[in-house]
Amino acid sequence: MLVQITENFEAMSKLAAEIVAERVRRKPDCVVGFATGSTPLGLYKELIRLHRAEGLDFSKVTTFNLDEYVGLPPEHDQSYHYFMWENLFKHLNVDRRFVHIPMGMAKDIDAFCAWYEEKMVEAGGIDLQILGIGANGHIAFNEPGSSLGSRTRIKTLTGTTLEANARFFKTPAEVPKYAITMGVGTIMDAKELLLLASGVGKSDAIAATCEGPITAMWPATIVQMHRSATVVVDQAAASKLKMKY
Ligand code: GLP
User: Fold this and answer.
1) pLDDT tens for residues 16-30?
2) Is this prediction's pTM over 0.90?
3) Centroid of chain to Cα 187
4) Is 67 noted as a catalytic residue in this protein?
5) pLDDT (mean) for 181-186
6) Would you say residue 172 has pLDDT above 90?
7) CATH number of the domain at 2-234, please?
8) Angstrom distance (rounded) from CA 167 to CA 161
9) 3-class secondary structure per residue, the chain
């Protein structure tokens, strides 16, 4: 695992964008796994800038998103569909046919999850998976206690995640309680991982991820087992690391 500590959110975002852009240039038809949340927003802004300023080409890139809330239609402004189109895809030359985001309104969720896994295999697997991290160490919506071998499936969100998400909804009753998420095992199948974290609120999760024992109680710790994982953090998120990097 390569740990890169950057000065702040902007520097973290720039470095992450350089990594993604390099992979897209090297393999124009690569498969990229995208994440939602506030953390990758700076990275997405920089990718948009690179697309506009330097013609970084996404026309052949296939995408798979990590997760989506169950029960939210794609046009809901808190859905991850909406997030991805608003904050990234509509600003790039992505081909709609190559974009995959879990369907929160799927009638048969188990069948949908199996189909999503098949699509990833058909695409040749994910070349580069971008990840954020929850303060409790979750990746995608794999909450503490998730099987480290899990595949795409429905998960119940924990109290801390519901609280963290409450600010985005008008009433607590509206906050989705379930999500479709790639599993920890699905994420580990990606050929390369790029995990980002910013702010002191992520410092315990980053300390556990980089230096703690591997445990399902901090799902992100499994990243230690990946052959090609880069963790890009800012100084605040790195503040509880003990080793020198
Ligand atoms: C949600 C998402 C995760 C994301 C996490 C952290 O739980 N499902 O993919 O990593 O939020 O979000 P933020 O980057 O806003 O702190």
Assistant:
1) 999 999 999 999 999
2) yes
3) 9
4) yes
5) 98
6) no
7) 3.40.50.1360
8) 11
9) CEEEEECCHHHHHHHHHHHHHHHHHHCCCCEEEECCCCCCHHHHHHHHHHHHHHCCCCCCCEEEECEEECCCCCCCCCCHHHHHHHHCHHHCCCCHHHEECCCCCCCCHHHHHHHHHHHHHHCCCCCEEEECCCCCCCECCECCCCCCCCCCEEEECCHHHHHHHHCCCCCHHHCCCEEEECCHHHHHCCCCEEEEECCHHHHHHHHHHHHCCCECCEHHHHHHHCCCEEEEEECCCCCCCCCCC
Measured from the CB, is residue 147 less than 6 Å from ligand 1? no
Residue 102: name the closest of 79, 125, 122 by CA: 79
Distance CA 151, CA 59 (A): 28
181 exposure class (CB count in 10 Å sphere: 0-12, 13-18, 19+) = buried
Residue nearest to atom 13 of ligand 1 (CA): 37
CA of 78 to the centre of ligand 1 (A): 13
Sign of CA dihedral 75, 81, 87, 90: negative
